[in-house]
Write a structure and sequence with these properties.
This protein is mostly beta strands and 110 residues long. 7% of the residues lie in helices and 47% in strands. The chain is built from 2 helices and 9 strands. It has helices spanning 45-48, 50-53, and strands spanning 14-17, 23-29, 32-39, 62-68, 70-75, 80-84, 88-91, 95-100, 105-109. The strands form 2 sheets. It has a 6-stranded antiparallel beta sheet with strand order 1-2-3-9-4-7, with no helix packed on it. A 3-stranded antiparallel beta sheet has the order 6-5-8, with no helix packed on it. The longest helix has 4 residues, at 45-48. The protein starts with 13 loop residues before the first strand and ends with a strand.
């Protein structure tokens, strides 16, 4: 195989639509996965992910770049942060999230 490979979110390896129209798509190259999420206004982790995850808060670590919109994170210890377009975030396991405002929030996670 050549030393370069391309993947596209237009043909994800996995796709997870939510009832509200939000989507999460995952592309993978080797052991590396990248996730693009488009969360609509009103989306919350508790409402749309918790039922599938079976956890009280998100158990994943995120390295995330926000392409558009705003999102609020609250850690289990109460620490809070609001991210917006152009921000890079590192989020440890044990958090909840909500989209803020009337604009979809689009993120890239790896």
């Amino acid at each position: 195989m050549a030393g370069i490979e391309r993947r596209s979110f237009s043909q994800p390896d996995e796709s997870y639509p939510s009832d509200d129209g939000s989507t999460t798509d995952i592309v993978q190259i080797g052991d590396n996965a990248v996730m693009r999420s488009v969360m609509l206004p009103g989306w919350s982790w508790e409402q749309y992910v918790k039922p599938m995850a079976g956890e009280d808060s998100c158990p994943m670590e995120h390295r995330e770049y926000i392409l558009s919109g705003r999102i609020r994170y609250v850690m289990d210890d109460g620490t809070e942060l609001i991210g917006e377009a152009g921000d890079y975030l590192e989020i440890q396991p044990g958090h909840l999230a909500w989209v803020l405002g009337d604009e979809p929030c689009e993120t890239i996670d790896w």
